[in-house]
Design goal:
heterodimer, A: alpha/beta, Rossmann fold, seven-stranded mixed β-sheet, 13 helices, 15 strands, B: mainly alpha, 2 strands, globular, Peripla_BP_I (chain A)
């Protein structure tokens, strides 16, 4: 039969051991989690659901960065040692609430920082999670101005807001000869597309061009009615904000009804394979907006020597040409890499390291194949990389894009006014 | 002031859109009338048909319209094979047969959508239709988009063929007898399984072929099915459950309402108006607009 004081001794030993364990765990927590010789980036993106295509684009962009830096440089150099980069994914399921859960999961898994989701809707739910947990978050794909107008301290974006892209692309199109006198603006009724349509309308109004109509529609609307109303207004240009499916439906209905304004400008995704496959014979001559394509004349940069070098590497790795979302996602990784070098702290990062990293990101300027990345601080688009040049592109007969505006960046002449459907 | 040109064009758009819906509603109504199955997979048959058009047409170097005979045969065979499974889960000692049919076809719809997503990815695909591009302009009226006009003609023709088969042939008489009373039909020596398989196969064939036309009109996209399932339900409720001629009226009402609401009220109000109509019909005339659906008997 055990003695009473033996039991008490066992109890005290247990309590002591437990207290020591908790204390050590606490110390480990202060130091940034368990020992690790890699930087752990938690990527939240849509790997399933309606946004799976875009999620895959961001995933390729993030992987492209991690694979390249690990292969070519052995990782990120900190104090003479190199630490590999590990990107761990959590599926946002094309759903904002699932995106928020995925971000929390990444933080619980001890991520040093977050790479952001595809689409503004999901990003808007991830930003508050990054804020609450004081963890750096850079997204390579989210364009709604609302994200940056919220003034989040821990979130950054490499792609400029669509308020800028849509506005500048429209302005470039309005400068083509013969100068348009009227536009018809449509968009899909969701945050990103609405912001796009609003930016297009604003650009037209600022240029003194008549806006015949501005209207938003549900995604699954029948576009013959949209087109009939537009055809009746007879505008010089049709401007449309939406994702790829709505662009395809719009040009299909336009060709069926013989609606041919001098040009269609649509954003996002005109120069993606998805648009070209979906629109088929209707795709050529469409105008679109981008901040990057492989043919951009630019040399030098961290990790990739030029836009074309990046495009070749991406094509070799994934068998498809990258668009600006993929490029912006890779650039997000490159920005982390340069900021971590400057931070000079080995993984895992402590909370102090993460806070210091935010300060570094606010002041950073990185020369990449995608362009110089710097983040606005304190302005209307807080922490958004607005230091890019918007390019007006037009698809050729073979579906390849040519930069046709603004004038100082153009690499080819626009086919404008575009030919009627029955003359193509 | 209403612009007459725009008004007539909206009427054309609405009628042709209604024609597209008729192609889907006919088979759906037949499946419900004969098999007493509310088929949740109807929209996914449309989607798979559209993808077959997108894949087969380039494979044979042909237009989408020329692969329709293949789609008809394949879908008929698949439908005839699936029907015994549906029959199995909706008969016997199982409780709530209608619910069992719904669950089965819901699972089938999920399976079809997931399979297409896995095989083809999330991108839209173009169904070649260069023979049916452009529109026919009728002075004083407006433009008739060729592909939509052909689709509407296909839908109305499909309906006429079904009606002829049901009311002018012995096979049709057998199917109507089954719809009337299965037990009595069996006692009269009708091979129920055989005729139910024929009816479901014909429904699947028509719906899959409608998918090719819809793919040519819009495009083939893995997410397109759900809206057609919703519209098929709308059509059948409006037409009167199982009442085939009502499908044309329902299609026209659906198409015209959608077009006029989008242009003269707001594109955002379309679903609101459509479902307001559904609720009114359900409250005032549950047997459909013409009062001849199953619920009236």
């Amino acid at each position: 039969m055990p003695r009473k004081h033996d039991d008490r001794r066992t109890f005290l030993k247990s309590v002591g051991a437990a207290a020591t364990t908790v204390g050590l765990a606490g110390c480990a927590g202060l130091g940034g989690g368990p020992e690790r010789d890699t930087f752990l980036l938690g990527a939240v993106t849509s790997l399933s659901g309606d946004l799976r295509f875009g999620g895959g684009v961001t995933q390729r962009g993030y992987d492209m960065w991690a694979d390249t830096i690990n292969r070519e440089q052995g990782g990120i150099e900190i104090g003479g040692d190199t630490y590999e980069v590990e990107v761990e994914y959590a599926d946002a399921q094309s759903n904002p609430s699932a995106g928020a859960d995925a971000a929390s999961q990444m933080i619980n898994d001890g991520a040093d920082a977050l790479l952001g989701p595809y689409s503004s809707n999901v990003t808007l739910s991830v930003c508050p999670i990054a804020e609450q947990n004081s963890i750096p978050h850079i997204t390579g794909s989210a364009e709604s101005p609302q994200i940056w107008q919220e003034g989040y301290e821990y979130s950054f974006g490499t792609i400029p807001t669509v308020s800028i892209i849509g506005n500048e692309a429209t302005s470039a199109l309005l400068n083509l000869e013969p100068q348009p006198e009227s536009v018809y603006v449509t968009g899909v009724n969701e945050p990103f597309s609405e912001a796009t349509a609003v930016s297009m309308r604003t650009a037209a109004e600022d240029a003194g061009v008549t806006v015949e109509n501005y209207e938003l529609f549900p995604r699954d609307t029948d576009y013959t009615n949209v087109v009939s109303a537009a055809q009746n207004a007879d505008p010089d240009l049709h401007l449309h904000g939406g994702h790829i499916g709505s662009h395809v439906d719009l040009v299909s209905a336009a060709s069926q009804l013989g609606y041919t304004p001098n040009g269609f400008l649509m954003h996002y995704g005109v120069n993606t394979g998805s648009y070209k496959e979906g629109a088929g014979a209707q795709a050529p001559y469409t105008f679109g907006a981008t901040v990057w394509i492989p043919s951009v004349d630019r040399s030098g940069g961290v990790l990739f020597d030029s836009p074309q070098a990046y495009a070749d590497a991406a094509e070799a790795a994934y068998g498809s040409a990258p668009d600006y979302t993929q490029a912006g996602s890779t650039a997000a990784g490159i920005v982390y890499q340069e900021a971590l070098k400057e931070l000079n702290a080995a993984p895992p990062l402590s909370q102090d390291d993460k806070d210091e990293l935010i300060g570094i990101l606010e002041e950073i300027e990185v020369n990449t194949f995608y362009g110089n990345v710097t983040f606005e601080v304190g302005g209307e688009y807080h922490h958004n990389n607005i230091n890019t040049q918007t390019l007006l592109i037009q698809l050729g007969e073979d579906g390849s894009p040519t930069i046709v505006g603004p004038e100082d960046a153009a690499t080819g002449e626009p086919n404008y006014p575009v030919p009627a459907w029955d003359e193509r | 002031m209403v612009d007459i040109g725009l008004f007539t064009q909206i009427v054309i758009n609405g009628l042709l859109l209604g024609g597209i819906y008729v192609t889907i509603g006919v088979g759906f109504s037949l499946a419900f009338g004969v098999l007493e199955v509310v088929d949740f997979a109807v929209g996914e048959y449309v989607m798979v048909g559209a993808f077959m058009g997108a894949v087969l047409a380039p494979l044979f170097g042909a237009e989408g319209v020329f692969v329709i005979p293949i789609v008809l045969v394949v879908f008929f065979a698949v439908g005839a094979l699936i029907q015994p499974l549906i029959h199995h889960v909706t008969t016997g000692d199982r409780p709530h047969p209608l619910l069992m049919g719904l669950v089965f076809t819901f699972g089938l719809a999920t399976f079809l959508r997931g399979s297409v997503l896995t095989i083809f990815g999330p991108n839209s695909q173009d169904v070649p239709s260069s023979l049916l591009t452009g529109g026919i302009e009728v002075p004083g009226l407006g433009t008739f988009p060729v592909v939509r006009t052909v689709t509407a003609v296909f839908g109305v023709t499909g309906l006429a063929v079904f009606m002829y088969y049901l009311y002018r042939t012995r096979g049709g008489m057998a199917i109507r007898a089954i719809a009337e009373d299965r037990t009595n039909a069996r006692l009269m020596g009708i091979n129920i399984n055989r005729y139910q398989s024929i009816a479901y196969g014909a429904y699947a064939a028509l719906t899959g072929s409608a998918g090719v036309f819809i793919g040519m009109t819009f495009n083939a996209s893995p997410g397109m099915g759900l809206q057609y399932t919703a519209f098929a339900f709308f059509m059948v409720v409006l037409a009167g459950m199982g009442y085939l001629p009502g499908v044309i009226v329902a299609g026209i009402v659906l198409g015209l309402t959608q077009s006029f609401t989008a242009v003269y009220i707001s594109g955002n109000a379309v679903l609101l108006v459509l479902f307001a109509i559904i609720y009114v019909v359900l409250l005032v005339s549950p047997a459909g607009i013409l009062g001849k659906g199953e619920w009236a008997t």
